[in-house]
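Methods — Computational structure assignment.
A single polypeptide chain was analysed. Its primary sequence is given first, followed by the predicted tertiary structure written as structure tokens.
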Amino acid sequence: MKTIGEVAAELGIGAHVLRHWEDAGALLVPRDGNGYRVYDEAAVERARTVLTLRRVGLSLTEVAAAVSPTKSAAQVAVRAKIAVLRSEVRQRQRAIVFLQHAVECRHRYLDDCADCAAFVRGA
């Protein structure tokens, strides 16, 4: 069994973060008879999972859904995030193409370039 401070130190986060995750419903931590949080190995592993999900971009609401007790509910939340991330990747890829063209464009002003104008119009 570990204290909240020990788990926070192990994960490299503040104890207040663990409390916040619990308040938000993203982390369930059992309590002892005195009401203190007790982090057994399962609770520490759940905290690691929440941390990983946060680091890959899920909001606490999304994390709470992703750690849902029902697999189907968790999958819905994760699939929705995957769709958002894929959309963001496509947007970034288009931005890279545009910026690469802008760097290599023979026109002095981007407004003079039909390719640049097409990108601005969303073509």
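Note: The chain has two domains: 1-57, 68-123.
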